Amino acid sequence: MIDIRNNTTQTEFDFSIIRRAAFLTLSAHKSEGYELSILLTNDDHIAELNQEYRSIDSPTDVLAFPMLENDENSFINSKILGDVVISLETAERQAKTEKHPLEDEVAFLTVHGILHLFGYDHHTPEGARKMFSEQTAILQKMQVDIKRNDDFV
Question: What is the pTM of this model?
Fold first, then answer.
């Protein structure tokens, strides 16, 4: 189950793009039975979450909160993957800067966030290579051509 919520004033956004990005990412990991939630929010709200959970006092484009493992690396609930939070305000700015549709940017951020839920990260060159390779493969299936890998290392 993929639960998508929008707490922004942006009401014309096509959720089917998010659903497709999520489904393809889950399918790529043979995890179609997992549950996850995706929240579209604004910069103020994501900045609060970023401060609370990462001690970073600024907005960001996407946050991921995995629920597969706790601090002792044991399974909490094997069917709940976690939560992804996307700032539509930041996504809009990034889409304008990169000159591509907002929907493509949000698809990119959805895939990126869900890969973090699966444990991918980009803090080392090897981790970045694996994550961005997987991210690119999923986005290609959606015909979304966004490659900003260097921005994330």
Answer: 0.88
